[in-house]
User: What shape does this take?
Amino acid sequence: MNADELQRYVRELEIAIPTVAPASSSHVRLALAADPTQPAGYVDAGSLVSFVAGVSQQNQDDVLNSTLLAQLHADKRFHRFDQPLEWYDAYRGVLGNVGWVIQQWVFQKDTSKTFTITMSEEILKALERVLTKGEFRVVSAAMDALRALSDGSGRLVLFDSESSSGSNGAFQISAASETGGRVAMTLGAYHFTSTQSEKRFLWFPFKSVDTNFFHAQQSVTLNKGQYDTVRQDIINKLGAAAKQFVASLDI
Assistant: This one.
């Protein structure tokens, strides 16, 4: 698509707005003075996004806004929990159109032989094989920060409600870095079904026999020239959602 077509694509994109109460305004990312020399972690609707030190504020905003837009469009078209494969196709389509170089998802089923499966542990084991040490540390810190939140925390409620019904769900956990102004991200995509239903599902020991957990990881890069063309249109499309449904974590 040329520049006019890309801009028209974003302007005409249908999105759903999450119905959960926004995260506490004291933790909305635009209300904080970000320090790009430090690592950072965010709840981004049903995604957990981490940045190693050195990612500029503009690049952090571009990652968070583009992944939020993709989620909200996929939410508009498909039920995230009941139709995860269709949902991920719609999610991937948006990312690809706004500038991310991204491939088709190849999901693998968790084949753990243990009696119980804890998703956070399985996620970290899978990501450790593909992340740098710095990326792995910041993802682990973001997950720990999310776990440490109280049950009533707006940030935890936001993530839980947008990523899972308790017994099934679809969510993303990612780590982004910047080299020479170029943004790269290891994007972890997950979906699951279970006969059990639990809040704080990432840390709950689900019975393996009752749970199907699927994961996929891939490295993606952002074509800045393409994204520059639609950056303002994405900001306009998201409106207040960019502030209300992205919240920082203390890592």
Notes: The chain has one domain: 39-242. Residues 24-28 have pLDDT under 50 and may be disordered. The first strand starts at residue 40 and ends at 44. The domain at 39-242 is CATH 3.40.198 (Delta-endotoxin CytB).
